Amino acid sequence: FEAVLGLPLAAQHRQRVRRGAGRVFEVLDAPDPVREPESPRPVPASPFPLEVRGLVARHPGAAKAALRGVDLRLEQGRRVAVVGPSGAGKTTLAQVLLRFLEPEAGVCALGGVDIRAVDGDQVRRVVGLCAQDAHLFDSSIRENLLIARRDATEAELRTVLRRVRLLEWADALPDGLDTLIGEHGARLSGGQHRRLTLARALLADFPVLVLDEPTEHLDLPTADALTADLLAATEGHTTVLITHRTAGLEAVDEVMVLDGGRVVQRGGYAELVGVDGPFRAMVAREEAAEHLAGRPAVAGVA
Questions:
Q1: Which of 32, 89, 108, 205 is placed for a possible disulfide with 261 were both Cys, Cβ 3.0 to 4.6 Å?
Q2: Contacts with 283 (C-beta within 8 Å, 6 or more apart), sequence order
Q3: Among the listed ranges 18-32, 51-65, 226-240, 256-270, which one has the minimum average pLDDT value?
Q4: pLDDT value of position 120
Q5: Spatial contact of 212 and 91, defined as CB atoms under 8 Å apart
């Protein structure tokens, strides 16, 4: 009896392995979303402007394009917020900027050089990503920061923690920066997790920083406080902020509204809330939701 006791469990494991192998082969058989150049060009000494013109992008196997006719120009130090509903194409734009997805048509260029002519790893040394699901390792605060730059000094670590408003919290811990944070940052709150990943991205000092939905799945007070702090932390740094919320966007240079893969509105925050349109409607919906939740409304929209 003991000899066959483990057979049912073994059968279950066999089925799981087969399903897992099937998923692996699906990935291996999928078309490559990016074709690396045979003779890559170097990234220009200055990657600015980062420019997108007439961009059309389609995910492999998709029936329709996720982005159509998108234009974007980023000079050094300029900050642009990209907003819109789920499925509008916001994250697809980030994937193109980071060379994770090939443009189907149009141009995406760094300092006048089409990124399709540049090796993807080189592009990502210029354009950095801080994603909502950025991974934290089962190690200390210090070690998670040093992943970005092994030669960073203690002063530099403390500076980036101060910029994201984590330094006072870290200094109050018994082990300070050597405090272990658990697997995937399990010992951190949602807001602390996002702030630490932002600090790591700031330490890497990418010329262009893409923040992809940094407040996703956070409660509204935490999300709005984090938005205010990350915009303060990135002041003067070329930044693309991808978000579904409008709170705090007065601080950016331009707001670009995507819907259905197209740019439907763009301009400064004050300009967009002053006219009827998609952005004003987004702000009004947020105000209504906050009113129902008992939070004070954001000034600027009736």
A1: 89
A2: 246, 273, 298, 300, 301
A3: 18-32
A4: 96
A5: yes
Sign of the CA dihedral running 6, 9, 11, 17: negative
Mean pLDDT computed over 91-110: 97
Calpha distance 66→56 (Å, rounded): 8
Question: Across the strands, what pairs with 180?
Answer: 140
The CA distance from 98 to 126, in Å, is: 9
Q: Which helix (H) or strand (E) holds 131?
A: strand 127-131
Q: What is the DSSP string of 21-65?
A: HHHHHHHHHSPPS----SSPPPPPSS-PSEEEEEEEE--TT-SS-
Q: According to CATH, what is the number of the domain 10-134+209-292?
A: 3.40.50.300
Question: Long-range pairs for 165-170 at CB < 8 Å and ≥24 separation?
Answer: 165/195, 165/229, 166/192, 166/195, 166/196, 166/199, 170/141
Query: CA-CA distance, 5 to 62, in Å (whole number)?
Result: 47
Q: How many CB atoms lie within 10 A of CB 115?
A: 28
Mean pLDDT within 74-80: 97
Say which amino acid occupies 9: L
Strands 254-259 and 79-83: parallel
Closest C-alpha among 205, 209, 206, 219 to residue 247: 219
Evaluate if pTM is beyond 0.90.
no
Burial label for 186, CB within 10 Å (0-12, 13-18, 19+), is: exposed
The phi and psi torsions of 232 (rounded to 5 degrees) equal: -65, -40
Distance CA 31, CA 168 (A): 48
Query: How far apart are alpha carbons 200 and 220 in whole angstroms?
Result: 24
